[in-house]
Design brief:
Layout: E1 3-7, H1 14-19, E2 26-32, E3 42-46, E4 54-58, E5 64-66, E6 78-82, E7 86-95, E8 100-108, H2 129-138, H3 147-155, H4 161-178, H5 199-205, H6 214-226, H7 240-244, E9 254-259, E10 269-270, E11 278-282, E12 287-291, E13 297-302, E14 311-316, E15 321-326, E16 331-336, E17 342-345, E18 356-359, E19 374-379, E20 384-389, E21 395-399, H8 408-411, E22 413-418, E23 424-429, E24 434-438, E25 443-448, E26 460-461, E27 466-471, E28 476-481, E29 486-492, E30 500-506, E31 511-516, E32 521-526, E33 531-536, E34 548-549, E35 556-559, H9 570-573, E36 581-586
Parallel strand pairs: 2-8
Antiparallel strand pairs: 1-13, 2-5, 3-4, 3-6, 4-9, 7-8, 9-36, 10-11, 11-12, 12-13, 14-15, 15-16, 16-17, 18-19, 19-20, 20-21, 22-23, 23-24, 24-25, 26-27, 27-28, 28-29, 30-31, 31-32, 32-33, 34-35, 35-36
Helix pairs in contact: 2-6, 4-6
Length: 589
Amino acid sequence: MRRTLVALAGCLGALCVSSAALAAVVRGHVRDTAGKPVPFVRINIDVPGGAPATTSVFSVEDGSFASPDLAADAKTLRIHAFRIGWEESGREVVKSGDDLELAITVRPIENVAHQVPASAWVPGEPGTRPFHMLVSECSNCHQVGAERVRRFSRAIDGAPPESKQIAWEAIVQYMRSQALRMGPSGQTALRWGLSEDHPDYQMAVAPETSFFTPRDMEIVVPVLANDFPTRFDELSGYDDVEELGEFGVTKATVVEEYSLPSFGWTREVAIAPGSDLVWFLELDADRIGSLDTKTGAVEWYEVPGEGPQGPHTVNADSKGGLWIALEESYGMARFDTATKEWRIYPPPEGLKFAITHDAAFNAKRQVEPDAQGRIWLTLVGINELWSIHVDTGAIERFPMPIPEHEQAFHVFLYGAALDPNGKRVWWTQLHGYLGAFNTETKEVETVVEFPRGAMPRRLAIDDDGTLWVPLFGEGQLVKYDTAAGKEVARYDMPDRAGATYSVTLDQKRGAIWLATTNSDRIYRFDVEDERWRQYPLPRQEAYLRSIELDHATGDLWTAYSNLPIGKRDPEVFGTEDANNRLVRLRPGD
């Protein structure tokens, strides 16, 4: 086992030691030009070289806000006020010293084009198939309205419709090839050890067998060519509550970002019982990392094995282990966070292509063996469900049903959850079904159909067997009763173009937390009163794949997992490592 220890950029030597003795608090009020309080203004506090690198708090109904203690000198802090529909027009330092008190004045603005999330640029009406197909097909790797997408669309402004059609078709083909590459935009290395003459590569870039098929293009490309905006400098009449939902933030809500000392693809975060560290993946570097939130120190642990491993999905178990799907070597790994030891579960011999993805987990979002000592795993590349015996490593393979007009690579067997009695694995397909596999009879028992573009994704399961299924393309949350075998409710998200990648069950709060890829915020759904609330994140293009709940503290953890990876354009984002961060949300309830 090889490991390395580094500190976050700027937090070295004397600074780390001396900052522990500092404790600044930023507080104040936000009012409009008439002196009325303005709530829900996010106060972003940048701490140069700090851990966390940014701390964000929110003004409340009386306009007041206050940060927690910050391990920083108040004189070094950079502070920015933000809410969609408002801009700062004045600032007065009421008090300075160890703490800082500010009186911030904001004024309403009509043109919010530079403030809105990517979802605001999705054309069409919720409830129509083209709208939901566009969200589902074009938000898998990046936001639909990301800056680089807008940049391309600007370039074809004024072109005739047939030329726009050709241009967007070319971009779709380009994205087919880019989906098989890892690293900064333009990097040539192919994933999974493929070469351009490999049959699996040829299959993945051929439209008929790719992730984006001609049937998809027939709906999506005309929407892009005819309806997607080509000018993005004007957007008015946008109300953030009406468009994005009720705010959930309180005076105690805190969002913290931790910068990482690399520019890799940091996809997901895990909290392991018995460990006081935060664990995360870096897929392109074949390693996992641990973050010490007190010091900002990061320690790396390389995944053992020859060739690319591709640690993709991570979930803890109840014993402090991390189960990690190795997407590029088609295996599974368990890392013991106490002993720092690895165990690798290799794929069956002779397997040429598979793509391991999600392990089935329980109501605590922890990987749990069934009564026979097996964990269960989805294989997105070949539409199979695998069982892996924890002790022996023996693997059994089970093909799942494929909808009509679909093929194995395109259908994408995806999320998985283990029934409370351990007798069924519930799974989703991005272009297909919600299903249940009986682990005793080894047969598929339940198949639930969804319309094209709905994309049931990473689900959650409660101790009573209730399933919560996010529909990525529909912008909906499905409640499914596994005992009765039926859907009992379906809830529209406030932002139907938000693209919900996964859901996380919070049993103590009686809530579901939703990670969105297209709206720069986390959503909360309270089960008892069926109430939605939004928690804005500190920056644009906040692409989330999963949310981890710290059961001890109630904090939420996630990571910005945008593609392409690598350093980002500082002229666009203000800093090179804009989204290379882990994020903690303290809801403040």
